[in-house]
Amino acid sequence: MDFGLFFQLPCASNQLVSNRYSETIQQSKLADNLGFNTVWLAELHFNPRFSVMPAPLLVGSAIAQITTRINIGTAVNLLPLHHPIRLAEEIATLDVISNGRAVFGIGRGSIPTHFEGYSIPITQSRDRFIESLDIILRAWTEDELTFEGDYYGTERLRVVPKPYQLPHPPVYIAANSPETFKLVGELGHNILATPLIATTKGVMNGLKTYRAQLADTSIGTNGGRIAINLPVYVDQNRKKAKNDVQQTMKNYIDALNEMRESSARERENQILAKGVTRRDRSDLTPDRIIQDYSVVGDPEECIETIEKFKETFAPQEIMCWFNIGGLLPDEDVVRSMTLFAEKVAPHFK
Predict the structure, then answer these.
(1) What backbone phi and psi angles, to 5 degrees, belong to 283?
(2) CA 135 – CA 150 distance, rounded (Å)
């Protein structure tokens, strides 16, 4: 089983944005040296407490220049918010300058302020997602692209550069709803899932649907890999590890609550059809995150916890979210990463 790093990049009012970026880039360099498989970079907008990383491909390009081995993925690019031709060009460029280390992680998006900020109706998210993905894959694999869709059209367009990887970088799609798990299986791509968002039962049921659909699909595909996103923190002292993450996890929960109570969310509820519901995570507490959705403790406990998640989800990769909430000092994150790489990861190789 592989292990990667996940960065959402929240920034508190007493933190400097420049420091948060430099920590992310240097921690990615350390991950490259420690043997982690992928650095996953989120795309989020308009809420610094939740994230100050609207342009993960720019960060990925910086990481590509100071690393040699680690893959560089997005988790995720919010496909409906992008012009697909532009995104095809940028992902291919990252793949070229990293010598074939780009991973194309994508999602529909679900935060209303994102769609309002880009003046895109959230009701169009699914259709825009499917059309954009089709365009991007064809732009990478066809010498001249001719396409006429509901949202985009082009004729005999030469999209360059082509990706370094053939036929293109691996595609991962984030899934948090039953509909999306099924869709990813139909499309025949790899999948990203976060139990903290979708719940353990939601991910278990979703992966069952995904695997069944993937087995039935007639599409030629390189899909089937599953990456699970889990908060991770390791310390030699089990009790200290759990105490250390309390404040940063609370910060994450509070940021979630702010978005849930936003006026954009209220407007979205009026637009969406009756019967469409959002998963309510207002029951989350730091202790519950630690107990149900995280790998937190000393190395021995972390190994035991990962074994349980491995049995539950059977993933090929765990995306280690070492600083959920963003409040842990850099030196604590570095120590946790190093301890994980030296004492926990080798058990699963």
Answers:
(1) -85, 0
(2) 12
CATH architecture, domain 2-348: Alpha-Beta Barrel (3.20)
Rounded (to 5) percent helix, strand, coil in the chain: 50, 15, 35
Q: Please give the Cα distance from 175 to 179 (Å, whole number).
A: 8
Torsion of CA 318, 246, 76, 183, to 10 degrees: 70
Tokens of 26: 């240097």
Model confidence at 264: pLDDT above 80: no
Query: What is the pLDDT at residue 219?
Result: 55
Token couple for 342: 């030296």
Residue 88 CB coordination number (10 Å): 25
Task: Using alpha carbons, select from 235, 230, 229, 231 the residue that is nearest to residue 249.
Answer: 231
Q: Is the peptide bond prior to 195 cis by the omega test (within 30 degrees of 0)?
A: no
Q: Is the pTM of this model over 0.90?
A: yes
- What is the residue extent of each domain of the chain? 2-348
Contact 183, 129 (CB under 8 A): no
CA 137, CA 157: separation in Å to the nearest integer? Answer: 14
- Report the length, in residues, of the chain: 349
Q: Give percent of the chain with pLDDT exceeding 90.
A: 89
Say what the pLDDT of residue 170 is: 97
Cα 245 to Cα 253: distance, rounded to the nearest angstrom: 12
Q: Kindly state the tokens that stand for 164.
A: 């370094």
In this predicted model, what pLDDT tens digit does every residue of 122-154 receive, in sequence order?
Answer: 999 999 999 999 999 999 999 999 999 999 999
Distance of alpha carbon 73 from alpha carbon 301, whole angstroms: 29
- Mean pLDDT over 208-220 rounds to 81
